[in-house]
Design brief:
Layout lengths: L2 H12 L11 H19 L10 H15 L11 H15 L11 H13 L9 H20 L15 H16 L7 H15 L11 H15 L11
Helix pairs in contact: 1-2, 2-9, 3-8, 4-7, 5-6
């Protein structure tokens, strides 16, 4: 690869002013750096979100305040709790405004779209289309394997071959059933309990509800890239 890519990689990595990236491959460092910056911009757009607070605390505050104000995107007080969970998640996905991404796509198709979207925004200036395709394919393949792992999500009806909408409905049913909610609790209390249960059930290396959103995403990506064989190969920069 051209020397220009090495210089760009070193510049991008040295520009990180938050946590150090714990991967050695320049491709992975640039991608993680890009995602880190994207998260910071994303957090700035969320009302009352504190980038230094835990993911659980931020999500609970955001949902509580939005419910009280009646402005939670996708929420309809006339819908059941599980239907509202689906509507909120689908509305959030559409708010990302990623071309061709919607709830009618299968989970596998959605992953392909998401990975292509983010890889397309990273300055891999000297990578061939075949190399970029290899990176894309391995990320998607490992993500699917992770989603299929029974210890990750307790959702027997979830299937990556089914649509995102069908999977969200199945997931909402599963989390509501598992919560065993007291019918006498308020709507806010029920939602809070489901959020806490859902975050506690996420079984990903390095993930913790007590970590920030950025810490969780970066830890996940670092584990992912260290696992992917394509990023552990020796790179020739000549």
């Amino acid at each position: 690869m051209k020397l220009s890519f090495v210089l760009i990689a070193l510049f991008c990595v040295s520009a990180i002013n938050a946590r150090a990236i714990k991967v050695s491959n320049p491709f992975a460092k640039i991608f993680i750096n890009f995602v880190q910056g994207w998260i910071e911009k994303f957090e700035e757009k969320i009302p009352a979100w504190n980038g230094s607070a835990s993911l659980e605390k931020n999500v609970l505050i955001f949902v509580d305040e939005s419910l009280k104000a009646g402005v939670l995107p996708g929420w309809n007080p006339d819908y059941s709790l599980d239907d509202n969970i689906v509507q909120v998640l689908e509305t959030f996905m559409r708010s990302l405004q990623i071309q061709e991404l919607d709830e009618t796509k299968s989970v596998t198709e959605a992953l392909n779209i998401l990975v292509f979207h983010f890889l397309g925004k990273v300055p891999f200036l000297s990578i061939s289309e075949d190399e970029l395709q290899d990176i894309h394919d391995q990320i998607v393949r490992n993500a699917i394997e992770a989603l299929n792992a029974p210890e990750l999500i307790e959702c027997p009806e979830c299937d990556v071959k089914k649509s995102v909408g069908d999977n969200l409905a199945a997931l909402a049913d599963a989390v509501v059933a598992k919560a065993e909610l007291d019918p006498n609790v308020s709507l806010e209390e029920a939602v809070n309990q489901i959020i806490k249960n859902a975050l506690a059930d996420v079984d990903l290396p390095g993930f913790s509800p007590s970590h920030t959103l950025k810490e969780n995403v970066i830890d996940f990506l670092e584990n992912l890239f260290n696992f992917l064989s394509i990023f552990n190969q020796e790179v020739n920069y000549d």
